[in-house]
Structures are given as C-alpha cells and as structure tokens.
Design goal:
- The complex is a heterodimer of chains A (about 290) and B (about 240).
- Chain A has about 290 residues and is an alpha/beta fold.
- In chain A, about 30% of the residues lie in helices and about 25% in strands.
- Chain A has a domain of about 160 residues: P-loop containing nucleotide triphosphate hydrolases (Rossmann fold, 3-Layer(aba) Sandwich).
- Chain A is built from ten helices and eleven strands.
- The longest helix of chain A has 17 residues.
- With about 240 residues, chain B is of the alpha/beta class.
- Chain B has a single domain, classed as Rossmann fold (3-Layer(aba) Sandwich), CATH 3.40.50.
- Chain B contains eight helices and ten strands.
- In chain B, strand 7, helix 6 and strand 8 form a beta-alpha-beta unit.
- In chain B, helix 3 packs across helix 4.
- Chain B starts with a strand and ends in a 12-residue tail after the last helix.
- Classes of the chains: A alpha/beta (about 290), B alpha/beta (about 240).
Chain lengths: ~290, ~240
C-alpha cells in the first residue's frame, strides 16, 4: 500500500525537516533487504508523532534523520533537508556541528544514553563547550538555568550525581535539559518514556511538549502507544513494516479508516474492556499483515 | 473451592544483616477460577509473592496453601505441585534458553515429568498459542517478542497447570502485541479451567483482566479492589491536551 499523499506536508507550511522517499536497506546474503521503504514526511514547528510497533522501522528512521546509521545499513533519499540544508551531502564535521545544536535526539533509557563514568554536570557542560563559545561561569549558569527549566529542583546536587544515582524520571529530565540547552530547532524523541513508570510518563511528556511549544521548536515523538502520543501531538504518522501506512491529523484519529491505525487506536486495555476481546491484527506466520480491511 | 490461601506470610531476604522484610504478615485468599490481580509500585513485594507461590523462593514463614496442598518452607516442590503451579515471566527474552530450540524448550518439562509422545504434545502446545509447527526448529533470537512470549505461555501450559502465575506478562511488549497476548490468556483460561494470579504495574491491564485485585505497598496488601472499582480504571479518555 502506498503512503497517503495528503497530510505529508507540515501544518504550518514552512517545514523544518523535509523527507522524501527515505529508504534504509541492509546488505543480506542474497542481495539487499529493504527495512524502511520510501517514507516521505515534513515536520514544521509543530508536534508530530511517529507511531508503529517494534520492527516497524520508526527508530531507524529517526537515526537516519540524525545521520547515525553506519554500514551495513544504507540510507537513500530523494530529499533529506533540514532548514534548507541538504543532509545527504553533509561531511562528518558538519554533522557533528549540527547534532545537539540544531537537531537533538532523546533516547529511550537515560541510564544507557548517558556516560556512566562522568558526573551529570560535566556531561551537560560538554554539550555547551562543543557547540558554543562561553566562559566556564556562563556555562555553569546556562546549565543551572536549563536544569531548573526541566524541573530539577536542586541543580547543584544533580550536577554532582553520576547517572546511576538518578531515578529514571530524573535521568530523562537531565537528558532533556542536555538536549535543549543549545536551543535546537527540532527535537526527535525516540520512546522517551517507555522506560519510565506509568505515573511518570505523562509528567515527562507534558514537560517536553510545553518546553518545545514555548521555544517554538519542532518535535518528532516516536512511540508505540498511539493513544498516549495523540494527546500531545497535532499530526500522526503511522508506520508498519517499514512503510508509512497512514498520515493524519490527531483530531481525525477516531475516524481513521486504515485497519492498522484503527487497531493501534483501540487496542489499549482498561476497565471498560473487561470480558471482551481486544481488537488485534490478522497476521500470518511471518507476521506479515493482512491489509484487507 | 479456594485456589490459594495465605496466612501471615513473611519473607525476608538476608537474615544476618538488618534487612527489612519484603513481605510482612500478608493474608490472601483466591478462589478457584478467579483472575486475581496484584498492583503496586516496584519494590512492593509483588514479584516475591509470586516467587513464593511458584516455589522459587523457599525461605519464608507463615502458612501457604495451594488448592489442597500445604507448601512447606525450605522444601522444593514435589509431586502434583510441580505440574499444578506454573509461571510466565516478564521478559520473554530472558526466560528462554538462548541456545535451545523451541522444540527442546517445550520437550524438557514433558520428559522430566515422564510424559510420552513428547513431540505431539509440543506441537499441540504450539497450536494452543497459535504458533505454526514450523516454529519448533527456531531459536529464541529468531522469534519476535510476541512470539517469544507465546512460547513462554506454551511452556507453562504443557503440564496442564491449575494455577498460572503471570509476572508482568506483557510489560516488555508493544500495545498491539499486548492485546494479542491478553486475548490469548483469556481464551486459554476458559478452555483449560485455570486460576490466574496476575502481577502488573499497569493498572489498565489489571482492570481489563481481573475479577478482583489487591493493591500492594511496602510488603503489605493495602486493600482489595472489587470489580466495580476496577471498571472505573480506564486509560485516559483522549481529551486532547494540545490546543
């Protein structure tokens, strides 16, 4: 099934990020295997969710946008632009200057994404040192300010901590502070809350969305929980097995015709579904989806 | 009939230091045929409770009765208990032997218990969890997360247990796969006439599955939640928060 042409463009017509026909393949014993198949979308100064189950290619797509894929993975695209800059032709040095300053990526588990042997303060300082010319005192002030903005009440104490001394929620706030301190235009968050307790998830998402909104940034929020991200995003991109199968505005989700979107929307259990079967996908042995509605 | 009866259960790891008890004087009664849930924050002792009932953790005090058999502290399960009580673990990646094929994983419990026609029973178990026979030759790394959890459930069902202990059976899975596994568990419960004890930190899963539930905190059962109250627990109705 081909991707829906409408809805690919960003809602405010100026796109920060513009992706056309992005494919990711891996060289296999018998030729190449396509993992992500011609995905196209724009992200403007808005909140967009990229949703799909594990193996759908959503995380690989995010990494391709950040230029983080290495051999044997191969990325090709008809267009891959960030603020008018062609990302396909970027040298490693220009990539390094771009990552963490104009585009930032937040990963699932802060305890794995942070360097375990460096204090948090030192790691935050490094992000500023690399991308900006500031004195040590200025960097300290900026770090402290940012930590307060993400709700870390005791910046000095948190800065002295090692990553393993932080809870998941605190760790993800530190990651968020670190990624936003240089004022990027686009934040890509790859399952930012799935390693957190249920009660913390909304808190962290809410914080992320309010910061992004306040700074008029773009947000690409990647998740497998459609209902949850739908509450925070304006548009939703749905991926299944490497393809973009549905694109729609959040308010139209309840009326989605695509069978996969419909199931993602309604498969969440709860008190109301007690004693009923939850809607599921019809799959064959290799988990290929029977797309017939 | 009562499936599980626990009176004054105490569990403490590490007796020599001043370790605090993980479970303090816990009482619990679960009827046969019930799906009973346990909700609580991490560290509240809910997994330990399952490990005591499964006979994995044997160092405890109090009285525990499963169907009509008393469990005895510091003694391994013997006889019928070994078949009657089975467990499905949280992490389908960690609970299957990485170097054993599905066939070997499903055959060993049968061989140990002296069942004949092992291959037929293994195939039947696969069919029960809706996996094709071709899966027998696969290793865990050749399966998706959902398929792996299905193998874990098939293994637990091989010996026709009457009490199935479910330790966060879907928390490592995506929502759409979780829905498949929860449906499967509900179908199997009816066809196999089992009692479920389901531990989860996800209130929505417990609300969907359970007839009653216990809210645990700091090693104690705070209160029992009835079905009426469980029905009130729902994922946030998707009133949009964005303007």
């Amino acid at each position: 099934m081909d991707c829906v042409p409408q809805g690919i463009r960003a809602v405010p017509d100026r796109a920060l990020l513009s992706v056309r026909d992005l494919s990711i393949s891996v060289s296999a014993p018998h030729g190449e295997r396509l993992i992500v198949d011609r995905v196209s979308f724009d992200v403007g100064a808005e909140r967009v969710a990229l949703v799909g189950e594990s193996g759908s290619g959503k995380s690989l797509t995010a990494r391709a946008l950040m230029g983080l894929l290495r051999r044997p993975l191969k990325v090709s695209a008809g267009r891959l632009e960030f603020e008018g800059v062609d990302l396909r032709a970027l040298t490693p040095a220009r990539w390094a200057a771009m990552r963490g300053s104009s585009m930032a990526l937040i990963l699932q588990d802060p305890r794995h994404a942070l360097n375990p042997v460096l204090r948090v303060g030192r790691q935050m300082d490094e992000v500023l040192r690399i991308h900006q010319k500031l004195s040590a005192a200025e960097r300290r002030d900026r770090t402290e300010e940012m930590m307060l903005a993400v709700g870390l009440a005791e910046p000095a104490r948190t800065a002295r901590a090692f990553p393993h001394e932080l809870s998941g929620g605190l760790g993800q706030r530190v990651m968020l502070a670190m990624m936003l301190v240089n004022g990027p235009r686009l934040l890509i968050a790859d399952e930012p809350t799935s390693s957190l307790d249920e009660s913390l998830r909304d808190q962290v998402l809410e914080l992320m969305v309010s910061l992004v909104e306040h700074r008029r940034m773009g947000l690409l929020l990647i998740s497998h929980d459609l209902q949850q991200v739908a509450r925070y995003c304006e548009r939703v991109l749905v991926m299944y097995r490497g393809r973009l199968v549905d694109v729609r505005r959040t308010q139209d989700l309840a009326g989605a015709e695509h069978p996969y979107t419909r199931i993602l929307w309604s498969c969440r259990p709860g008190g109301r579904t007690y004693g009923t079967e939850l809607p599921v996908l019809v799959r064959d042995a290799d988990e290929r989806l029977d797309m017939a509605p | 009939m009562i499936a599980v009866r626990i009176d004054g259960l105490c569990v403490q790891y590490d007796h020599h230091s001043h370790g605090r008890p993980v479970i303090k004087a816990l009482d619990l009664k679960i009827d046969a045929g019930e799906t009973f849930g346990v909700i609580g924050p991490s560290g509240c002792g809910k997994s330990t409770l399952l490990r005591v009932l499964a006979g994995i953790h044997r160092d405890w005090h109090g009285q525990v009765r499963v169907f009509d058999q008393d469990l005895i502290p510091n003694r391994r399960f013997a006889g019928a208990l070994r078949r009657d009580v089975q467990m499905v673990f949280q992490d389908p990646y960690g609970s299957l032997h990485p170097l054993h094929t599905v066939e070997r994983t499903l055959s060993e419990p049968l061989q140990v218990n002296g069942v004949t026609a092992v291959r037929d029973r293994a195939l039947q178990a696969l069919e029960e969890v809706k996996l094709p026979p071709s899966m027998l030759g696969r290793f865990p790394h050749q399966l998706s997360g959902g398929q792996r959890q299905r193998v874990g459930i098939a293994r637990a069902l091989l010996l026709r247990p009457t009490l199935l202990l479910l330790d966060e059976p879907t928390s490592a899975l995506d929502l759409s796969v979780q829905a498949e596994i929860l449906n499967l568990l509900n179908r199997l419960k009816v066809s196999h006439n089992m009692t479920y004890l389901l531990v989860s930190h996800d209130r929505n899963v417990v609300a969907h599955m359970c007839d009653r539930a216990a809210a645990m905190d700091a090693g104690k059962i705070e209160r029992i939640i009835g079905r009426d109250e469980l029905s009130q627990i729902n994922p946030d109705d998707t009133e949009r928060k964005v303007p």
